[in-house]
Design a protein that fits this description.
By secondary structure, the chain is α+β, with helices and mostly antiparallel strands. Helices cover about 15% and strands about 45% of the residues. Strand 2 and strand 3 form a beta hairpin.
Length: about 160
């Protein structure tokens, strides 16, 4: 079970480059249920997620590079590219994503929790602002099916 909340940011935290970070490229074979393939640095992962916003079943399986490339031919819609920074915060890790290419300008953070109670009682640090957990358009799977005008409108509303 994956339990996470997503936030937009007021500003970037100081010394961002000093935190562990990874390059991510991912595509979606399906969005209901979510079937995602991801290149995480030099690793390849298949993820299947149930429907839901804050709570979802999530299953991951490692892929070979060959399997990843074969599944890449089945990706529908936009490929999502981002750099993910892992920022320790109290007992949690904030995963701060700076999006590239079609979604350049979008910066979002998410935090995973062991249970719903911890998720609901979480107090975000000052650099995080609006909680967008319950807004489906901020889920990467939904971003993957946006057309160019929807992407433009989406990014414009963030300003």
């Amino acid at each position: 079970m994956e339990i996470e909340r997503k936030f937009l940011l007021k500003y970037l935290p100081e010394n961002l480059e000093s935190y562990e970070h990874h390059t991510i490229v991912q595509g979606y074979v399906n969005t209901e249920p979510v079937v995602r393939i991801r290149q995480y640095d030099e690793n390849y992962i298949l993820t299947i997620k149930s429907l839901g916003l804050m709570e979802r079943i999530e299953i991951e399986k490692e892929l070979t590079e060959k399997e990843f490339k074969e599944l890449s031919t089945m990706v529908k819609g936009n490929v999502i590219s981002k750099v993910r920074y892992k920022i320790p915060y109290n007992e949690y890790t904030i995963e701060l994503d700076i999006f590239k290419e079609e979604f350049e300008g979008l910066i979002m953070a998410e935090v995973e929790f062991p249970d719903k109670e911890k998720a609901e009682s979480f107090v975000a640090p000052d650099f995080m602002s609006v909680d967008v957990t319950d807004d489906p358009k901020f889920h990467n799977s939904q971003m993957s099916v946006m057309d160019k005008k929807e992407i433009s409108d989406f990014l414009t509303c963030l300003d």
